[in-house]
Amino acid sequence: MGRAKKVVLAYSGGVDTSVCIPYLKHEWGVEEVITLAADLGQGDELAPIQQKALDSGASESLVVDAQDTFIQNYAFPSIQANALYENRYPLSTALARPLIAKLLVDAAAEYGADAVAHGCTGKGNDQVRFDVAIAALNPDLKVLAPAREWGMSREETIAYGEKYGISAPVKKSSPYSIDRNLLGRSIEAGPLEDPWTEPLEEIYAMTTAIDDTPNSPEYIEIGFEEGIPTTVNGDVLDPVKVITRLNRRAGLHGVGRVDMIENRLVGIKSREIYEAPALLLLIQAHRELESLALTADVSQYKRGIEETYSRLVYNGLWYSPLKQALDAFILQTQARVTGTVRIKLFKGTASVVGRKSDYSLYTPDLATYGAEDQFDHKAAEGFIYIWGLPTRVWSQRLRES
């Protein structure tokens, strides 16, 4: 069933992607499999993963450090868009997929591969994200998805791997499926498949249990330049350090957990647990700064754009024409979103307690009720008459009928 001669495979070191290597070669006639593991801050030791790919039959095993690109080119634009899928999920896992797809396409071009492959099954969102993103970047490139087609159970997959020298994984006591990168963790499966079941504390790794959080609040000041976070408590930090520091500080106070019933693109509902302390904190702070710097009509219109943007990213359309058009709108709105937001972290809550900007549209002389009030109260009567005129005419006609 030969579909390609040389394939670049997205590789995680797990059972499915490891078995993909001999499966592609022996079942589909692929001559050469090159694996690519993206270092997105997932905390795995990538050297053993690299060796495991070679031991599983890969001709070459690539590891790409893409952490800075991940934050700067994918996470930060998403923060500018205040992207929260279904107004809750900050897309910590979804944002990694278009980047991995780009790395696959770039590697295929560099190594002369005629196809790329991934280990996604037919039930999740990631298969769509990979396939569509790859098609957008290079529509002539074949996309192979062995795990979507081989029809093997978990046990059969392990047995197939053992036949080609891939050792069976150590039996895990944890029933959970976990995905991690620099932006956060997603946890699903096992007891969590029952929406009524409260998650056990054992599933969390980035956020502290409320009972164990500090008994005193901590204040964090986040500085933004044109909608991009650049400082934490006055320290100028590179993109990765902004995320790592805020993950640590917010997570210590139990901030950053999401427990939701999520509508997957493939049409099913899924119970998902997320930890994304820095990402959720930055979106909250960014929204607050926008409330100072954007006019009311821009803020209100942007909310609809944000919802569409979030849905596009979740649905794998990062490289789509509509996403590009929304990017241009969002970038235009960020020109004056510069300033500082002060947040109080305490017992699982993050409360904005201060905000300032040189571009603030908040005018104390107009807002005050004190002696400094410059608002023309006499103008209000005429404004109300004109504003209410359509309602008044409607009411009169209704009474006459």
Automatic annotation (TrEMBL):
The keyword RNA-binding does not apply. Gene3D superfamilies: Argininosuccinate synthetase, chain A, domain 2, HUPs, Single helix bin. Its EC number is 6.3.4.5. Coiled coil: none annotated. ATP binds at residues 10-18, 38, 119. Pathway: Amino-acid biosynthesis; L-arginine biosynthesis; L-arginine from L-ornithine and carbamoyl phosphate: step 2/3. InterPro entries: Arginosuc_syn_C, Arginosuc_syn_N, Arginosuc_synth, Arginosuc_synth_CS, Arginosuc_synth_type_1_subfam, AS_cat/multimer_dom_body, Rossmann-like_a/b/a_fold. Keywords: Amino-acid biosynthesis, Arginine biosynthesis, ATP-binding, Cytoplasm, Ligase, Nucleotide-binding. It catalyses: L-citrulline + L-aspartate + ATP = 2-(N(omega)-L-arginino)succinate + AMP + diphosphate + H(+). L-citrulline binds at residues 89, 125, 129, 177, 186, 262, 274. CDD domains: ASS. L-aspartate binds at residues 121, 125-126. Residues 6-166 form the Arginosuccinate synthase-like N-terminal domain. It comes from the Bacteria. It is found in: Cytoplasm. Residues 176-394 form the Arginosuccinate synthase C-terminal domain. The keyword Metal-binding does not apply. Pfam families: Arginosuc_syn_C (PF20979), Arginosuc_synth (PF00764). One of its GO terms (molecular function) is argininosuccinate synthase activity. PANTHER family: ARGININOSUCCINATE SYNTHASE (PTHR11587). Homotetramer. HAMAP family: Arg_succ_synth_type1. Belongs to the argininosuccinate synthase family. Type 1 subfamily. This is Argininosuccinate synthase. It comes from Candidatus Synechococcus calcipolaris G9. The gene is argG.
